Amino acid sequence: MNDLIPPLVSDGHILAEVNGCLGLITLNRPQALNALSLAMIRDITALLSHWARRPEIQAVAVLGAGREGKPPAFCAGGDIRFFHQAAHAGDPALADFFTEEYRLNHLIHAYPKPYIALMDGIVMGGGMGISQGAKLRVLSERSKLAMPETGIGLFPDVGGGWFLAQCSGHVGEWLALTGHPIAAGDAIEWGLGDVFVRAEQWPALVEDLRHDAQPSAEHVVATVMERADLAPVSAPKATTDRIDRHFGLPSVAAILDSLAQADDDWARQTHATLCQRSPTMMAVTLELVRRGRKLSLADDLRLERDLVHHAFHLRGAARSETVEGIRALAIDKDHAPRWNPATVAEVDPAEVAAFFTSPWPAAEHPLKDLA
């Protein structure tokens, strides 16, 4: 049995176990809402790569460790404090983090065996990256899905430019620009989830996956599906109509102007949210999602790797929107990022275009070999 689990390097932040044909991966960093570190990414990659080659393992499930007496979190994203520190220090591990995370995202989407994501609780950013490629994405009424990167002066990465672009209508632009969290019903309606299991059933589901006989991949899937239920009502059609009306417009400025002219609470709240985001990175984000509709996942991840390099290096760490956004949210916690420029009208189209110029020749791109 031990040879089914390779050596792990994340100091217990990733737990691995095998039950019959099922390999289980537990994100075990609950005090940080199971946010991903580079070591955790390396452990998940090692486990998935090892299990892909082992015929004894026919399916994989991934879940987040719980927090006693607190709401659950599957994975709240990447370790943004590390991003801030590494950017200021010029630490090459920052580049390694994104290269290896995006490789892991691609591996999950292309995984040759059923990969099941148990997305109970908070699922944001990097948590979406390790769940959206799953063959079965399982949600509960506690699930809150979001790509909130524009709030820290980043863009929805980990394949977000591709999987948000697959959402119906212009939902992808709305989710990408606002970072608005959505519940299980909306996620399933918009193609970001598959199955709803009520929270009261969750302990029994996890117990059965861990300890009941799991002789085949079909049995693993059946263990989940026998507890599936109808998800709570999703967003009304009026909301999706509003989203399409405003977020289908050609620019961030046009979207903001349209929201400002609408006389309803939803538009006012959405406008206020966008006014808190980085103007530059909203422009980059909108362009990414629009391009994502015409890209393969591999090409999208290569583009995102270009973009994230520029997010930290185009202006240098001292003037990076991402470094500033993380400072305001997680370092100084003043929640008052000083975006530069401060308004959408001042955004330089040439700078936005520069984000989409790769810093590497194609033959030297760190993700050149993704198929």
In a few lines, what is going on in this structure?
This protein has helices at 38-53, 80-89, 93-109, 126-129, 160-163, 171-178, 184-189, 202-211, 217-225, 237-247, 252-261, 265-274, 279-292, 297-313, 321-331, 349-355; strands at 14-19, 22-27, 59-64, 73-75, 115-119, 122-124, 136-139, 144-146, 195-196.
**Annotation field: number of helices:** 16
Top-tier CATH class of the largest domain: Alpha Beta
Count of individual beta strands = 9
Strand order of the largest sheet: 1-2-3-5-7-9
Characterization of this structure:
This protein has 371 residues and is of the alpha/beta class. The chain folds into two domains: 1-146 and 191-233, 2-enoyl-CoA Hydratase, Chain A, domain 1 (Alpha-Beta Complex); 236-371, 2-enoyl-CoA Hydratase, Chain A, domain 1 (Alpha-Beta Complex). It has 16 helices and nine strands. The protein has helices spanning 38-53, 80-89, 93-109, 126-129, 160-163, 171-178, 184-189, 202-211, 217-225, 237-247, 252-261, 265-274, 279-292, 297-313, 321-331, 349-355; strands at 14-19, 22-27, 59-64, 73-75, 115-119, 122-124, 136-139, 144-146, 195-196. The strands form two sheets. The chain has a six-stranded mixed β-sheet, sandwiched between helices. A three-stranded parallel β-sheet has the order 4-6-8. Helix 6 (171-178) packs antiparallel against helix 13 (279-292). The longest helix has 17 residues, at 93-109. Residues 23-356 form the Enoyl-CoA hydratase/isomerase domain. InterPro entries: ClpP/crotonase-like_dom_sf, ECH_dom, HIBYL-CoA-H. It comes from Pelomonas aquatica.
